[in-house]
Every structure is written in structure tokens, then in C-alpha cells.
Specification:
The chain has 278 residues and is α/β, with parallel strands linked by helices. The chain has helices at 6-19, 22-30, 49-54, 71-84, 138-150, 174-185, 199-208, 228-245, 250-261; strands spanning 37-43, 61-68, 87-90, 94-98, 101-109, 126-130, 155-168, 212-218, 221-223, 265-277. Strands 1, 2, 3, 4, 5, 6, 7, 8, 9 and 10 form a ten-stranded mixed beta sheet that branches.
Amino acid sequence: MSGFSAEWLDLREGADHAARNAALRDQAASACADRDSLTIVDLACGSGSNLRGLAEYLPARQKWLLVDHDPALLAAASVRLAAWADAAKEGGTLLLAKGARRIEVEFRTADLSSGAAAALEGEIDFVTSSAFFDLVSAPWLEGFAEQIAARRLPLYAILSYSGEERWTPPHPADVEMLAAFHRHQERDKGFGPAAGPRAAGLLRAALDGRGYRVETAPSPWRLGAGDRALIAALAEGSAAAVAETGAVSAQTIEDWRRARRAAAECEIGHWDLLARPI
């Protein structure tokens, strides 16, 4: 299974939160507005960014199950959530106070490569995930859609990579580099050949066919002068991924990497998805 460091997740958290499509987020919140409490499962939770970005829009009493394959990321999530909260009490579960909200957090280490069944046990009201579904395969998405449809669970999935990128100023190798990057995105990340930019469309189709009302909306990263470190990290990561494909010459990759580290702006496309059973 593909892994990410807590430091990388920290670096991108501000961009992730800013990119969420506000209209779709508000629809997700409205669907839960009449509830006194809510139980949420967050798949591939990383260091807990999705909870921090969404909790303020949900009912006052929340119970989150954070699921990830990496125990180190779950430990980082516990530390970062405690620091984010107004007050925190650790025990068998992490109890957080944030404004008027009281949030109970449980952590579960689980390998999702064979499906999400291990994360979907017990009483659940809502399933969410961030920047995850583009890593899994088309058959995995079909199986996941079947699993949540069997329980009529709503899904709010944010930041699935769309494949669209725009860097400023343009570079002669942009098209070649992006095509090679897409080839890398579709490599097996531990779930079979990854859906990559097709993920949101595949997930939408899978849920449309199972009695869901599905809406998607764009949620691009728009990075500029205040995002120098993230732009540089993106340039390095993209160049390294393309190098692994062998599809672009080393000199072209290096020229592009140097130029992109100093890019004035970049826009990386994503899709958010909200699916509710009819």
C-alpha cells in the first residue's frame, strides 16, 4: 500500500482545506443538520486532517473512527488532534472539545487493500475520505460501492485527483511530463492498478447504479506566492514519479523540476463527491 509521511500531510493540509468545494460541503452538512449526534468513519485518515476540516460543520456531538494502515500516522493524528482541540482527554478513546462540539475519536489500524469491510462494522451514520479513492482500482471501487450500498450509507469523498494541472509560467515539457505522471498515477498502489484521474467518475457510476443520488464538484488546489514550500514539494514529487516511468529523458525531467520549483502559481485539479441513498 502506498504510504505518505505526516510531514507531507501537514504541508498540504491548508491547501486541502481551502480547496474543499464549499457548496458540496454545505450540502453534506445540511443532510446531517437535524441530528443530535453523528458517527463518522474516515477511511485512510492519515494524520486526521479530514476531521479538522469537517468537524465544525457537523452536529455538536460527534464520534469519529479514524482508519489507516499506518500506525505511525494514527499516532500522529492523535497528537495533532489533541493540539487542535480546545481541550483533550486521552484514554481508551480521545475525547476532544472544540468550541461547542464534543468529539470522541477512536483509531483503528486496518489494511484496506482487500476492501473496506473491516472499517464499516458497527453503527455508522456517515462515511468520508480525503485524497484516497484515486489510489485504488476500479474493481476496489465497485466492491466499496457495493459495501456501503448494502447499508445505505452516505459518502462524502473529497480531493480525488482529476488529472488537470496548470503551472505558471508554462514550460515546454508540461504536456509530456503530465502524460508520464498520469501513467505513474495508474500504477498499482496496493489495491490493483490505480484509477487515478478516473476515480471520481468510476465511483459516481458505481453509486448511481446502486440507488444513490450523486453530486460532484471541482475542488482544485490553487497555489501561489504563499505556498512556496508546497509548490516545491509537488515539483520534486512529480519529477520523481515521472523518472520512475522511464518515459521522459533525465535532462527534460531535471529542467522541468528546476523550473517548477520556482513556479509562480499552480493549479491541481480535484473532484469532491457527495453520494446519498435515495
